[in-house]
Write a structure and sequence with these properties.
heterodimer; A: Glutaredoxin; 5 helices; 10 strands; globular; B: Glutaredoxin; 47% helix
């Protein structure tokens, strides 16, 4: 009986102590997804046959941080898509909470900003949940095998692009392109919380 | 003298001088009005607080003062819609519960180091809870020092009991009654 009690207590302890699964960590393999692009076509990571990896960015229309980084995200794709690291932007915001993030508004932004990369809608928020995205913009750099190699901010200065001293995403992708380990794998930043649907 | 004569003599004979006098008089009235307006404005704003600019170290010290009340620390920004939506809950708590200290910590500095927008927001919303304006660059260097569970997304709320060292943390908007539960949980 005593043993059973001890066992039960132990089980209860492990149960309570088990970490809540909160998205991918560095080194974990991301699951591919299929989401609708602003042109109406469905897009998966597997569609990019020549990709050496992916720059997955959870982003939106409305967040001032997203606005501050719009042109920098376009520049990232311009620089790295040809080298095999395309940008895949995903908007997870619930448009009923953030009207400016509707599918129509997404299409307009992609056109206005000349997005040369997919801007996908994560309507059920399941991809953002699987990745553990919390902010916009929130970057996940994946290697060819979809292993997560970097999580976090694009660089270290949201306010002023000219004052950036660390380009975290570029450093991560450059490292992967030359077969080195990513120097800094996680970077936090102030940003807009994702507008989740009511539970 | 008839009125017509008076007018014509003034308008013709002395008009440049009179015009100058009139202009001076008008200017005085204008200046007086301006002074009165400024006085009224400052009186109206006398009760409105200014955001207190704090460095990271000053802020951390504030969070670690051992003899203080339970701290309700809300991280917000003027651009953050869900933050503005939940603000009344913090204002209500500040007004009704004298046993806790509410700190509204503006994160606006990261995008705009000028506190003017925050000051205007305080005036417009007539905020009574203490507002801090955190002036700290490179958030990656300090977000974990404040709270490891925080991704940096706004809003976020930290409840600290300095006497028991117990903490509660919420990332995202809080709901009605949630702050009271968090306070209970750190007792």
């Amino acid at each position: 009986m005593k043993r059973v009690v001890i066992l039960l207590v132990l089980v209860a302890f492990t149960w309570a102590g088990a970490p809540v699964k909160n998205g991918y960590d560095i080194g974990e393999t991301a699951a591919d997804f299929k989401l609708k692009n602003v042109d109406g076509k469905m897009v998966s990571l597997a569609d990019f046959k020549d990709a050496q990896g992916y720059i997955v960015i959870f982003d939106c229309n409305t967040c001032p941080y997203s606005k501050a980084y719009n042109d920098r995200i376009v520049a990232l794709n311009d620089k790295y898509a040809a080298k095999g690291f395309p940008v895949i932007a995903i908007n997870p915001n619930d448009p009923s909470k953030s009207g400016g993030d509707s599918f129509d508004e997404m299409a307009k932004l992609a056109k206005r900003k000349n997005y040369t990369f997919p801007y996908l809608v994560d309507e059920t928020q399941s991809v953002a949940t699987a990745f553990g995205a919390t902010n916009t913009p929130h970057v996940f750099v994946l290697d060819k095998a979809l292993k997560v190699q970097y999580i976090g901010a694009i660089d270290d200065n949201a306010r002023n692009e000219n004052a950036v001293s660390k380009r975290y995403v570029e450093d991560a992708v450059n490292a992967l392109l030359s077969g080195r380990a990513v120097p800094i794998t996680k970077v936090k930043a102030i940003g807009c919380g994702i507008k989740w649907k009511n539970a | 003298m008839h009125l017509g004569e008076y007018l014509s003599s003034n308008l013709h004979a002395n008009s440049p001088l009179n015009l100058a006098r009139f202009a001076l008089h008008a200017m005085r009235i204008k200046t007086n009005l301006f002074v009165i307006f400024a006085l009224l404005l400052s009186a109206a704003c006398a009760n409105a607080q200014k955001a207190e600019a704090v460095t990271l170290q000053q802020f951390q010290k504030r969070l670690s003062e051992k003899d203080g009340k339970v701290l309700i620390v809300n991280f917000w920004a003027t651009w953050c819609a869900p933050c503005i939506h939940e603000l009344p809950l913090f204002e209500k708590l500040n007004k009704e519960n004298g046993d806790v200290e509410v700190l509204l910590v503006s994160m606006d500095y990261d995008l705009d180091p000028d506190p003017t927008k925050v000051e205007r927001f305080i005036d417009r919303k007539k905020l009574e809870s203490k507002v801090l304006f955190l002036t700290a660059d490179n958030p990656n260097a300090w977000i974990d020092k404040i709270e490891k569970r925080w991704s940096g997304a706004l809003p976020a709320t930290l409840v600290i009991n300095p006497k028991t060292d117990k903490r509660q943390f919420v990332q995202g908007e809080v709901g009605e009654g949630q702050l009271e539960k968090l306070i209970e949980a750190v007792k």
